[in-house]
């Protein structure tokens, strides 16, 4: 375990790395991630069906001393068809837990959600998932507990010049992972969003 793990927005080509990460999770963590015990085939189907256009995925890449890179954390921000509500699923592998990695991914996912117009984010968890409850509280989410599952919620979200600048800076830090064309495209859409925001069109 050497350098600082990198946080990146993931693309469809990261599917195999996401699958490998989810299959490396301890069974207990896999159960907590999916809200119930799930067989390997279900995880495979979940990864095959992931959407990378409307939804957003963030991952923590850990580079080992031998230079090999592994995805050791994943956050899926699912966005509903109206683009107003987001649902987050998050996981970090055991040897890397309690280092603030889920906090980093969730903070990034929330900023992204705000910037694309999502107004509310929810995270479902099993009622005994105390780590997730603490984590959600630390992010300012409100918690409610039902009989079978709990829900963490962040409401009244909106974009701001700060949230846009923050995401742009994060994307620039990924420059090694992105082509110049992709960065130019992101720059174009960010400045358009910023222009609309300043003109009062994003509320
Ligand atoms: C929940 C999970 C994602 C947290 O990942 P993580 O990278 O360890 O979280 P962080 O290091 O960012 O923790 C942030 C805060 O959350 C709380 N927290 C995290 N793990 C905790 C634990 N085991 N016990 C108590 N509090 C915990 C703490 O307040 C922590 O801050 P601190 O370390 O400064 O005290 C990880 O435990 C996991 O993958 N669990 C299995 C999957 C899961 O439950 N997913 C949630 C449902 S989608």
Automatic annotation (TrEMBL):
It comes from the Bacteria. GO terms for molecular function: acyltransferase activity. It is an enzyme of class 2 (transferase). The keyword Transferase applies. Keywords: Acyltransferase, Transferase. Its EC number is 2.3.-.-. It holds the Pfam family Acetyltransf_1. CDD domains: NAT_SF. InterPro entries: Acyl_CoA_acyltransferase (IPR016181), GNAT_dom (IPR000182). Residues 12-156 form the N-acetyltransferase domain. The keyword Acyltransferase applies. This is GNAT family N-acetyltransferase.
């Amino acid at each position: 375990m050497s350098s600082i793990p990198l946080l990146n927005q993931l693309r469809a080509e990261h599917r195999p790395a996401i699958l490998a990460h989810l299959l490396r999770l301890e069974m207990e963590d896999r159960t907590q991630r999916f809200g119930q015990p799930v067989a390997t085939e279900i995880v495979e189907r979940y990864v095959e069906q992931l959407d990378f256009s409307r939804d957003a995925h963030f991952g923590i890449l850990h580079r080992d001393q031998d230079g090999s890179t592994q995805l050791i954390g994943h956050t899926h921000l699912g966005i509903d068809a109206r683009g107003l509500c987001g649902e987050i699923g998050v996981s970090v592998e055991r040897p890397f837990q309690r280092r603030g990695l889920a906090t980093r991914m969730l903070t990034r996912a929330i900023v992204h959600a705000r910037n694309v117009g999502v107004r509310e984010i929810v995270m479902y968890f099993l009622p005994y998932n105390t780590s997730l409850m603490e984590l959600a509280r630390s992010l300012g989410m409100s918690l409610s507990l039902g009989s079978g599952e709990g829900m963490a919620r962040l409401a009244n979200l909106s974009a701001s010049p700060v949230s846009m600048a923050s995401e742009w800076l994060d994307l620039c830090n990924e420059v090694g992972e992105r082509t110049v064309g992709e960065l130019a495209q992101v720059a174009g859409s960010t400045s358009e969003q910023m222009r609309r925001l300043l003109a009062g069109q994003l509320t």
